[in-house]
Amino acid sequence: MKNLMNENMTRIRSMSRLRGVLTFLVLLGIGGIPAAKAQDTLAEIQKRGYVEIGIGAGGFPYAAVDQDGKPIGAAPEISIAALKQMGITDVRPQVVDWGALIPGLQAKRYDLVSTGMFMNPQRCQAVLFSKPDTCSVDVFMVPKGNPLNLHSLKDVAAHPEVKITMAPGSNEVRIAKEAGVAEDQMVTNTDVQSRLKLLQTGRVNVWIDPSDTFSALQNKDPNFEVIPVEGAQIACAGAAFRKEDATFRDAYDAALTKVQQSGEFTRILTKYGFPADIALKADTAQLCAAQ
After folding, report:
1. Region 136-234: CATH code
2. Nearest to 213 by CA among 266, 136, 118
3. Fold of 41-133+238-289
4. Where in the chain is the domain with CATH 3.40.190.10?
5. Against a cut of 0.85, is the pTM above it?
6. Over the range 212-248, which residues count as b (16 or more CB within 10 Å of their CB) and which as e?
7. Which keywords does UniProt give here (predicted)?
8. What is the pLDDT along the chain (291 residues), one digit of tens a residue?
């Protein structure tokens, strides 16, 4: 009898240890028993009935918010059209400083970024991009006659006394650093009109931005002119998604293709002064690999 009781106690302790091990494995999601999966972003959006998009401050004509809080500009209007194809019609914007857009997306403060964010290898390591939606090329705005004879970012870097303005966290900041422009030469500002003011008041000598920024500029000043930047390459932007949201991005791309095929894509870009033919031919994988 005593031996039988000992055997039963041993069996109970063994089963208890086994249950503990299985529970641990379930928590880890291993051992053949899958852990519960978090609901993906697209499913969450469809369940809640609205989508939140991040928009960079001062980025018109790429993206902005009007007085009624409605997203406007080429990028969000293209996103709105694509999301509509997906059955999502309630689009709620959050205006964010450019440098905080990707961190905010990764922190799940919004579901995607739609603001004319140019693709480059560094950003492509941090987020997933959609098919290209807007394309442009960088240009300078300088005083009439270009008195400092600035034609490239290397020209700016060669003159430490020269100050240049651009949007914070932008592609222009990156390529300026790559060209050797020092941090103390760069005066960044999120607002387009404020960047113009910096130039007009002499606080900076040159302003660099994509060509479409200048074509949409209000209060143009005849004392300044827009000139090409030597060595500037065509850059293209797309909507940005979290790395884990490939399902959402792929569904968005499929919807964006329908928008392109319908002609609405071209109408939106033309409305804001962007070349549609370049965006239609551009490839995300190539843009992410470009140096």
Report:
1. 3.40.190.10
2. 136
3. D-Maltodextrin-Binding Protein; domain 2 (3.40.190)
4. 41-133+238-289, 136-234
5. no
6. bbbebbeeeeeebebeebeebeebbbbbbbbeebeeb
7. Signal
8. 444 444 444 444 444 454 444 344 333 343 333 333 445 999 999 999 999 999 998 788 899 999 999 999 999 999 999 999 999 999 999 999 988 999 999 999 999 999 999 999 999 999 999 999 999 889 999 999 999 999 999 999 999 999 999 999 888 999 999 999 999 999 999 888 899 999 999 999 999 998 888 877 767 789 999 999 998 888 899 999 999 999 999 999 999 999 999 999 999 999 988 889 889 999 999 999 986
Place of tokens 């641990």: 24
> Which residues make Cβ contacts (< 8 Å) with residue 212, sequence separation at least 6?
61, 62, 134, 136, 272, 273, 274
